[in-house]
Automatic annotation (TrEMBL):
Annotated GFO/IDH/MocA-like oxidoreductase domain residues: 131-254
Organism field: Paenibacillus wynnii
Superkingdom of source: Bacteria
PANTHER family in the cross-refs: D-GLUCOSIDE 3-DEHYDROGENASE, UDP-N-ACETYL-2-AMINO-2-DEOXY-D-GLUCURONATE OXIDASE
Location of the Gfo/Idh/MocA-like oxidoreductase N-terminal domain: 5-119
Gene Ontology MF annotations: nucleotide binding
Listed name of the protein: Oxidoreductase
């Protein structure tokens, strides 16, 4: 049975979804949606499909089985809920929503729908992430002691002025935490387990007067298993550096640098995971695993199996972001 797909939102991330769909057998991208008719028209030409400007036109179409949400954060909840209520499967880009109450409504809609809700945290599919998780689950390096995650990226004024929803609490839901570095926070909580408390701080270092949200943040995460994680993120750097991760175990340390994973043990460093090969669409620091996650989602849909990175799982990173904001005494909307 062929599955029909639609993409809502024709911005920077949508081509990765379109490319992944085109690479799968038994799946056809049938329509792209954007309120900007010119964007929708251009995307439709590039993808070889039809286009509409109102996503609600998808709701009654029996030829649309899966809807991809590549829209601004504050639009995820309404669109996902309506699509789920119509029995569509929904795969949404991160974050699941711009605030926790909206995310909870999405989860409730999925529970009452014949469709599934999936959340795009593609870095869980990266080879280093998989190898780290295997080491954690097998215990081959002993107990995990502590972790750190560092993200130093660059966003200039034009990034925000060209997309007016960015840089605002009510539409983006925050700044560097909820947009750029939520992937790294998701990995830290996925590796570490249940969090007991968070202490964090946010500032606007380079974009003060341009955005109302943070461009820099740091936090200490305390886990129930006594693991501790340190986290630092900024959009105030002048280049987009690869994400750095370090996990210290009883019997060695795993270090991720430039998409490679190394084991440092007894004074010797060994390569555990090679960088990915081939050309990835989009920006290199996004990671290369969008296609793997999207393919996995479709396989679960086709086999009528529950997708593991569902709404409940996708909310965990948003909860962590919310906790850091709360710890920082930031003025929030609905968080």
């Amino acid at each position: 049975m062929e599955l029909g797909a639609a993409i809502i939102g024709c911005g920077a991330i949508s081509p990765l979804h379109a490319k992944a769909i085109s690479a799968m057998k038994g799946v056809q991208l049938r329509v792209v949606v954007d309120v900007d008719a010119a964007k929708a028209e251009q995307a439709a030409r590039e993808c070889g499909c039809s286009r509409v400007v109102d996503y609600r036109e998808l709701l009654d179409r029996p030829d649309i089985d899966v809807v991809h949400l590549c829209t601004p954060h504050h639009l995820h909840a309404e669109m996902a809920i309506e699509c789920l209520n119509a029995g569509k499967h929904v795969l949404t880009e991160k974050p699941i929503a711009s605030d926790l109450p909206s995310a909870k409504r999405m989860v409730e809609a999925a529970e009452n729908s014949t469709g599934q809700l999936g959340v795009v945290f593609q870095n869980r599919y990266n080879e280093p992430s998989i190898r780290i998780k295997e080491a954690l689950d097998s215990g081959e390096l002993g107990q995990l002691i502590c972790m750190k995650g560092i993200v130093t990226w660059h966003r200039d004024e034009s990034y925000y002025t060209n997309s007016t929803w960015r840089g605002r609490w009510d539409t983006e839901g925050g700044g560097v935490l909820i947009n750029q570095t939520i992937h790294t926070l998701d990995l830290l909580q996925w590796f570490g387990g249940e969090i007991s408390s968070v202490k964090g701080s946010i500032t606007t270092d380079a974009l003060n007067g341009i955005i109302e949200v943070e461009d820099t943040a740091h936090a200490t995460l305390f886990f129930k298993n006594n693991v501790r994680a340190l986290f630092y993120a900024t959009n105030a750097y002048l280049v987009n550096s690869p994400v750095e991760l370090e996990l210290v175990f009883e019997q060695g340390t795993l270090i991720q640098r430039r998409d490679c994973l190394y084991l440092y043990k007894k004074g010797k460093e060994t390569l555990w995971s090679h960088p990915p090969t081939g050309n990835a669409l989009g920006k290199s620091y996004w990671g290369v695993s969008h296609s793997l996650l999207i393919k996995d989602f479709y396989e679960h849909v086709r086999d009528k199996r529950d997708f593991w990175l569902n709404g409940t799982e996708g909310m965990k990173a948003l909860q962590l972001v919310s906790d850091i904001y709360t710890s920082s005494s930031a003025r929030l909307t609905n968080l």
